[in-house]
Prior knowledge:
The structure holds 3 protein chains of 3 kinds.
Chain A: H1 2-28, E1 41-42, E2 46-53, H2 60-80, E3 85-92, H3 100-111, E4 115-119, H4 124-137, E5 141-143, E6 164-166, H5 171-185, E7 190-195, H6 199-214, E8 218-223, H7 232-236, E9 244-247, H8 252-264, E10 271-274, E11 290-293, H9 301-309, H10 319-338, E12 342-343, H11 345-353, E13 356-357, E14 366-367, E15 381-385, E16 391-393
Parallel strand pairs in A: 2-3, 2-4, 4-5, 5-6, 7-8, 7-9, 9-10, 10-11
Antiparallel strand pairs in A: 1-12, 11-15, 13-14, 15-16
Helix pairs in contact in A: 2-10, 3-4, 5-6, 10-11
Chain B: H1 2-29, H2 35-66, H3 73-90, H4 101-128, H5 137-158, E1 163-164, H6 167-170, E2 175-178, E3 184-187, H7 188-210, H8 212-222, H9 224-229, H10 234-260, E4 262-263, H11 267-282, H12 287-307, H13 310-327
Antiparallel strand pairs in B: 1-4, 2-3
Chain C: H1 23-26, H2 28-32, H3 36-47, H4 50-55, H5 70-96, H6 104-118, E1 119-124, E2 127-132, H7 135-155, H8 162-183, E3 201-205, E4 208-212, H9 215-238, H10 240-250, H11 252-257, H12 262-288, H13 298-311, H14 316-332, H15 339-357, H16 362-386, H17 402-408, H18 416-435, H19 438-458, H20 464-482
Antiparallel strand pairs in C: 1-2, 3-4
Helix pairs in contact in C: 5-9, 5-12, 5-13, 5-14, 6-7, 6-8, 6-12, 7-12, 9-10, 9-12, 10-12, 13-14, 13-20, 16-19, 18-19
Amino acid sequence: MLKKIGLVAVLAALISVVVATTTAWGSAKAPRTASAATASVKCGKTRTIGMAAPITGPASDIGNQQVRWAKYFVKRWNKKHSNARIKVVMGDTQLGVDTAFAVKAAKSFASNSKLLGVVGPAGSQEVVASTTAYKQGGLGFVSGSASRTTLTDGHTDGNRRGYFYRTVPNDAAQGPAVANWMTKKLKWKRVYIIDDQETYSQGLADGVQKILNNRGVTTKRDSISQKDSDFSSAIAKIPSNYQGIYIPWQLAPQAQAFGQQLQAAGKGHIKLFGSDGLFAPGVWKIAGSYDSAFPYNPASKVVQTYVKAHGGNGEFFGLPSYVAAQVVVGAVTRACKAGHGKTTRAAVRKQIAKTNLKTSILGFSVAFQKSGEMKLPAAYGIYQIQKNGSFKRIG
Amino acid sequence: MASTSRQVLGNLAGLGVLLAIWVVYAVYFSPTQGWTFFFQLTVNGIILGSIYALIALGYSLVYGILKLLNFAHGDVYMIGSFIGFGVLTLLGGPLSPAIPVALLVLCMFVAAMLGSGVLGLAIERFAYRPLRDAPRIAPLISALGVAFFLENSVLLLFGADYRNYDGYELISYNGIHLGGDAGVFVSYLGVLVISGALLLMVALIALVRWSRFGKAMRAVSFDREAAAMMGIDPDRVIAITFLVGSALGGAAGVMFGLVYSQIYYLIGFLAGLKGFTAAVVGGIGSIPGAMLGGLLVGLVESWAKGYLNGNVADLVVFGILIGVMLLRPSGLLGTPALQKV
Amino acid sequence: MADTPPPNPDQPTPANTEIGVDRWVSEADERRDRGGLGGRIQRLWGGLPPSGKLALLTPAIFLPFLPLSEATIYNYGLFILIYALLALGLNVVVGFAGLLDLGYVAFFGFGAYAYAFLSGTHHEKGHEYTHHWSAQYSILTAVVLCAVLGLFLGSSSRRLLGDYLAIVTLFFGQAFVVFTNSADPYGITNGSNGLGNIDPLHFSAFGVHLTVSSTRGYYWFLFGCVVLVLIIVHLLSESRTGRAWKASREDPLAAELMGMPVNRLKIMAFSFGAAIAGLAGSVFAAAQTGAFPQNFGTQVLILIYAVVILGGTGSLTGMLAGATAIIVSFQVLDSTSPPNNARTLFYLGLIVGVAALFRKSRLKMAVAVVSTIALGFAVHAIAEAVWPRGTSGSVTSGGYLTGAIKDWVLLPTHANRLAIYGYLALIVLVVVIVQLKGWWRVAVVPPTLVLTAFVWENLLIQQPAVTRYVLFGVLLIALMATRPQGLFGTAKVEIV
C-alpha cells in the first residue's frame, strides 16, 4: 500500500514538474498566432475574408438575412473585379445557444492564415466573448448588428479599439429618436414601458424613460422574459388610460402575440411602439403600431434589386451587413494594392480605420471614428405598420 | 390511513391560511391595491393553471403507475401544440378557415390528442419498457435522451421560427365582462380553455374511478405483480396510461397555442418544468394533487408577474417548489412514502 | 403474459448474481476465461497499477507540439480536458455516491462566474467591481465557494429520495441560469451580457510571475489539473470514504445500519463534485475570457451526462474515453468544420452500427451490407429512369465521397418536404427494426440504411449542429437500452 502511494506520488510529482515547465515555456514564448497579425499574406487573385453569423440556432433567421446581404455584396464585387475576387469563409456562431461557439468561430478564423478580415459577429455578447480571440489573431472585425453602446467605450466590456467597427448606429442613438417622436409628434402624455430583460432592451427602455420623464410624461415600467408567452398579467397591470406602450424587444413574434393578447383584454386602443429588433414585416403585423429602425436608402438600386429578388421581403435586418462586407472587402483590396500583392492583417485593420465610402445603401456616407463607431450619427427612421402589414416610413 | 388523511387535511389547512394572508396583503397592503386587479390576475392564473394541471396529470399518471419521472412529457406537449398548428394550417389557417370554427377547433384537439397519445405509446414501448427492471437511473437518463431528441428533431425539421396560432383571430377577441366594463375581463378563449380542461379532468376521474380499466390502473400502480397474478396485463395497462397521460398533454399544448399564440420548439422544456412542479407540489402520483398543484402554480405565477415583475416570477415559482418539497416532501395531497426494509 | 422482453444478459438476474456479491465479483471467472484479443487486453489492463494507467496519459502532453492550428487545439484539446474534468466530478456524485444531480452545470457556471468576478473588471448599474486577484487566489476561492454551495444543495438531499433530489437539483440548475441572466442583484453578474473583461490566468507568488495566455498554455495547465484530479479521485475511491460511498449507493439502509453516516456522505459527495466543477469552470472562464449565462444551459448538462454514461459511471478511464469520444464527434459534426469529416464519421457510424447489430452472425452482416449497396444503386437507377427530379440535386460540399454519393443516394432538387417525411418514416422503421429478429431484421435493414443516407444527404448534413444533438439524444436512449454500464463501467448504479 505504501509502495503504491509512493509510486503514485513520485509519478504525480514528475508529471506536475513536466506540466509546470511546459506551461511556463508555453506562456513565456509569444503565442504563435500573435505573429499572425504581422505575418505576410500573399494577395493573389482571390482574397479570403470570414463571416461570423448565427447560421443555425434560434437566431438563424436574422443570421441568414445577414449572410444573404453580405453574399449579395460579394457576388456583385466579384462580377466587377474578376482579378481581385473575394472568398468568404463562414463561421457559425449559433447566437442564442452558447457564446462559446462564437469564440470557436473566432479561433478558427484566427488560425486560417489566408484570412484577412471578418464580417460580424452579430450579437453584442458574441463581440465581448470573441474579442480576445480576434485580438490575438490580429484580425479586424466589422459588425452589422452589434449595437450595444458600451462595446466601443474602451473600458466597460474590454478594449477593442482598432479591431472592432460597426456599421449600425448604437443603441444610445435610438432612444432620443423614439422619445422625440412620442413627445413632439404623437404628443403622448402617459406611456407604459416594458423591456424583455436583455441588455439591449433594458438600455433602450432606460434611455427612453429618462427622456420622457424629463419632459413631464408619466411613465410606468415592467419587464417580461424572452421565453414568455403569457402576457396576461403584465397586460392587466397596464391602466386603460395610457396612450402608448414602448416595447423595445428583439423577438417580433413575441410582439405579435403581445398585441393580440392586449386586444383580447380590451386594451387594443393603446398603441404599441417597437424598436429595430421588431422590424419584421409579416411577423409583427398589428396595424397602427409604430417602430423605429435603422435607416437605409429605399431609392437605392441595390436595395430594390434585392427586394425584388427576395419576393418583396427586404430583410432589412441584414442590410448593414452588406455595408460591413463592403468595408472589409474595400480595406483588403486597398491593403493588397498598397502592399503590391502582399499584405498583413495589421495593414488591413489600418485600412478599415481609413474607410471613407462617399455613398452607401444606408443613405449616408460611411467613415469611422477612433472608437469604432461611424462618424455620421445616423438618424433613426420611424415607421408605422399599415393595414396590409407593411412598414411605411413616416419620419 | 387516518394519520395520512389527517396530514393531508393539515396541509390543506396550512395552504388555506397562507392563501388568506396573501389575499389580504395583496388587496389591502400591496402597492397596487384593489379587488379588481386581484381578481383579474386570479382569472388569468386559473386559465394558466388549467393548462399546467393537464400537464401535471400526465406526469402524475405515469409516476403513479411506474414510479418514473417522464422528462419527455413536456416535449410531448410541445409536439401536441405543433400538431394542432399543423391541422390549423392544413384546414385554411386562422384567418380563413375552410370549415366552421367549432369543428376546426375540435379537429385540432382530436388530432393533437391522438398524435401525442401515439407518441407517448411509442416512447413507452421503445425507451422505457426495455428498462423496466433496470436500476432507476437508466429510465431517467433515457427520458432525458428522448426529451433532447424530440426538441432537436422539431428544431431540425421545422426550424427555430415561432409559429403563431392567432387564436384570437380564429375565435374572437371578445369575452365576458364580470362586474361591468371596468371589471374583470375573461376572453371567450379563456372560457374555452377552462371548460375544456374541466371536461377532460372530469373524464379522467370518471375513467379512473368508475371504469374497469381505471380499477386495473389502480391495481397495477398499487402492486404490479399481484395485479398480474389477478389476470391484468400490466404492459397493456401501462401503455394505455401513457396514452391517456400524453393525450392530456397534447390537449394542453393546443390550449396553450390558442390562448398565448406563439409556439416554438422550446416551450416543452419550460412548461414541462412547471407541470413537474405542479405535480410534485400536489403530491406526485395523486390525481387530485396534480389538479390542485397545477392550479396553484398557475395562480402563483400570475400573481408573481402581477405584483412583482416578470424577472423574478420564475424564481418565485421554483422557490415555492423547493420550500414545499423541503417541508412536505410528498407534496400537499400525497402520502409520505414508507420505505420497506 | 404476452410480450415480456427477453432476458437481457447484461442485467443481473438470480442466475448470475449471488446474494451479497455484486456483479463485478460474480463475473470474475467469466472475465478471466475470456479469450482472444479482447481478453488479453483486458487482463493486461487489469494488471497495470494505477500509476501505470496514469502514465499512459503522457503522450497527451505532446499534443500541442504537433503542427495543429490554434483552433484545433482549442476546440478539441481544451474542451476534451474540460469535459473530462466535469465528468470526473459528476462521476463522484452519480457514479460513486449514486445521487442523480441534474443541476451540476450550475456549479460549473458558479465557478466560472466566481473567477470572472474576482479576476476582472466590470461596471454595471452604477456599481464598479475591480478585483484583479491573481489566479491562485481566485481559483481557490471559486473552488471553495462551489464546495460550500454543494454542501448547501447536498443538505437538501437529507429529506429527499432519488427522484425528488433529481427535481430539486434540476430546478437549482434552472434557478442559476435565471439568476445570472435576469435577477442580477447589484449588477454582480451583468445579466445576459455576462462578464467579459477578465484577466488571463496569472499566478504570482514568492516573486514568481506566470501568465497563461496562449491556448497551448491553457491546454497544459488543464492537463495538469486533470491529472491532479484523477489522482485525488482515485485515492478517494480506494479509501474508506470511497468504499462507504459505494456501500451507501448499493443499499443506503444497510449502510446506515452498519454505522455509516449516509447523510453526511451524500453531502460530502455533492460538495466534492461541486468543487471539481468549480475548478473546471474557473479555467473555462479564463480560456474563453468571459462567462455568459448561455454557457451553462441544459445542452452542456446533457453533454456531461452523455460523457459520464458513455464512459461508464464509476470508471475513471471511462471518463477520459467518453470525453474524447463525445467531444471529437461533437466537433466533427459542427457546422463550421468541413462537411467531409462529418460525412466520413456518419458513414463510418453506419457501418459500425450494422456490425454491432449483426455481430453474432457474419453471414447476416454480409447479406445486409451487400443488399444495402445493391438496393441503393437499384433505387437510384429506377429513380433516374422514372423520376428525373429525383436525381438532379447536388451533393452538399462533397469532398472525396461526391462521386459515390451521387450514384448511390437519391438527391432530389427541392428535397425539403421529402426529407421531412423520410425522417419520420425513418423513426418508425428504426422502432420496427428493434422489435424484429433474425432474417426479418435483415430484410428491413437495407431499406432503412438507404433511407438514412437519403435523409442525411438531404436534410441532416445541412444542419450538422442540430443533428449532433439529435444523435446524442438517440445515443443516450440506445446506451441505456443496450449497455447501461457504458464502455468501461462495471458497477450497477442504483440511485439513492
